[in-house]
């Protein structure tokens, strides 16, 4: 898999906008995300809920009570990654999640500190904060990442919270600047998926780990993660299921991408958006905004 920079068919500021999920229990899943992340909820209609942070929509949930739960091997969502502005914000969230009684995993990825859990319907969640970009290490176009133990005590102390007692913790509300930093997908082949996303959207492959690949615009550590850890060799699912419905990418200028994809029969084009589905049925739209 080549890791050379690709032609810039999207601006370097392109990033993930919203993630849309099919929810078997819409009210329950809505309450879960609102409580976990301190998000505001609006209801466009009784079958949809939008969860936002300070007016920025992050999750769009759709009622799908008749859909089956996705099998663990099904291509689709591995996790939605919520990026908090600072390490102190991450500490405040960690204390909040601990007080809610959630079982949480973690990983120090050198470029970021992250915590992991799943929602009640099995959709993966990451909550993380980046380290300053000038501390990231790059070599031959690859960003150096790892999965080490997180200094959870240090994360809590950054928020002024006592790790032993959680004294100093307060009710958590998503701070201004909370975004979806990246989306991580399950695919049948990480190498094939990396080529597809690189060739379709002009992403750079910034970390190639064989069974997983990480891609980004503008020198970020990754906007899209791809792995085959549970889904190696799986084809496009034959029928819909709960879980990932689609996701949105936001770009300042769509015209270079529109020209790049001109003539492809798998692309749906609108005045301010382009939609396409990857080889494993993961649908995405690129919107101008």
From TrEMBL:
InterPro entries referenced in this protein's UniProt entry, alphabetically: Glyas_Bleomycin-R_OHBP_Dase, Glyas_Fos-R_dOase_dom, VOC_core
Signal peptide residues on this chain, from the entry's feature table: none
All residue ranges annotated as the VOC domain in the record: 15-130, 179-289
Region (Disordered), start-end ranges: 261-289
SUPFAM superfamilies recorded: Glyoxalase/Bleomycin resistance protein/Dihydroxybiphenyl dioxygenase
Cross-referenced PANTHER family: CATECHOL-2,3-DIOXYGENASE (PTHR43279)
Protein name per Swiss-Prot or TrEMBL: VOC family protein
UniProt organism field: Deinococcus aquaticus
